[in-house]
Design brief:
Two copies of one chain form a homodimer. Chain A is α+β, with helices and mostly antiparallel strands. Chain A has six helices and five strands, in the order ααααββββαβα. In chain A, the strands form two sheets. A three-stranded mixed β-sheet of chain A has the order 4-3-5. Strand 5 of chain A pairs antiparallel with strand 5 (141-152) of chain B. Chain A binds a DNA duplex through helix 4.
Chain lengths: 164, 164
Amino acid sequence: MPTSALPYRPHNHDACVAQALAEARDICQQHHARLTPTRERVLELIWQSHKPLGAYDVLAVLAEDGHNAAPPTVYRALDFLQQHGLVHRISSLNAFIGCTHAGKSHNGMFLICRSCGNVLELTAPGVASAVTKAAAQESFRPDDVTIEVAGYCPRCSAEAAHDG
Amino acid sequence: MPTSALPYRPHNHDACVAQALAEARDICQQHHARLTPTRERVLELIWQSHKPLGAYDVLAVLAEDGHNAAPPTVYRALDFLQQHGLVHRISSLNAFIGCTHAGKSHNGMFLICRSCGNVLELTAPGVASAVTKAAAQESFRPDDVTIEVAGYCPRCSAEAAHDG
DNA sequence: CTGCTAATGTTATAATGTTGCAAATTTCGC
DNA sequence: GCGAAATTTGCAACATTATAACATTAGCAG
């Protein structure tokens, strides 16, 4: 077991990207969905780091690529990727992040570091069941659960302590 | 115990508003904060229903009031109200709703009906502790927790069943 | 090839939120 | 009360995020 989760420690991020793309191709094939060059490129960009990326950030990089894209291009690609569970939208940030549990059914919970901006996606069964239970008590039928926790990651907490 | 929570059944909503305003005056006094006419009016508007209201919706009503307001007026009022725990922002909707637990410390959880738009705010201790625990397992220090559950309220679920 | 569907391009515009500065109001020490 | 300091508001401009509507192109089945 690692001392801390991936986003919080140095790692070969190219491997993250490569794996994400490979899984994406796999999943799209299973879904009979087309992972077109634009969609794949957008997914790759979203995966450039473990920090969420805004749609217009993606757009800017596409422009650098020489791809003369407009906002709808990016939003459509992101919609597609979301539909197939390849990226998530972090609504408290209006930004997007690669899904680290693609394929598996999952109720994501996001830990968003206010200091470094990295986001860790967790599957938290305890949380999911507690939410379901609370909703059931109100006879509410949940459909989509958003859990976003802003705070400080272990690394930034430690650094803050040193600065003290 | 009611068969269902307030937003989901007919009730004297004026009483909701009156109580919210009274509590707000109380809380602001305790905080040595000024509940100015604009701020109070915005709070009242947010409380017009149990459906969240966008900043520009508030702005439009202020305009009808004859109040020649610009966006910053509304956003500033909303910031103030949020800071004092009188309204919440629902980030998945870019909209605001009156807090039903003003004063008490609370980790709100929002049940958002996709059909009628009503929002129920719950204090769910089980959920809060599960989130805290999950974060702790990653050595993450939570600061602000957003839980928004989109789905169908009891009333709309029932109606949908009738239509079948 | 032909015709259908999905995907993309293109232009414009809507919706949401912020910055910066000036004017007015309130607070508070005197 | 009176005036300086701080808070609040007015106001204009602008920044960011997202969508609508319609034309065009690419992929694919027959």
